[in-house]
Design brief:
By secondary structure, the chain is of the alpha+beta class. It has helices spanning about 10-15, 25-30, 70-80, 85-90, 95-110; strands spanning about 50-55, 60-65.
């Protein structure tokens, strides 16, 4: 099953560090290959994590997707940055939607 941007809060997606949009290959810009590694195999609906549509300053729209492995790694890094600074995560991690989304992405990255 593929995760889509609709499953992941925008705040959680925003915590994933993306490469600069102008540095992406055309295949990365249209979501055919992982946004973090253009050399990887083409993504399919079953293997991709949808990172949503992005817009640049007047030069276009990108439909970014990533492989599970890279998404999991970047979600883990984002969670390690987010959790210590989030009052909900510190009190009870189960109450934070952003932390839960990042943990879900991390688990999907292990598949």
């Amino acid at each position: 099953m593929t995760s889509t941007v609709h499953d992941i809060p925008a705040e959680a997606l925003g915590l994933l560090v993306l490469p600069p949009l102008d540095a992406l290959t055309p295949d990365q810009q249209r979501g055919a290959v992982c946004v973090w590694d253009a050399a990887e195999a083409r993504l399919s609906a079953e293997t991709a994590i949808d990172l949503g549509e992005r817009q640049s300053d007047g030069s276009g729209h990108w439909f970014l997707r990533a492989c599970r492995q890279h998404t999991g790694l970047l979600a883990w890094r984002a969670l390690m940055d987010h959790a210590p600074m989030c009052e909900q995560c510190v009190d009870d991690a189960g109450n934070c939607d952003i932390g839960a989304a990042l943990r879900r992405l991390r688990r999907e990255g292990r598949r």
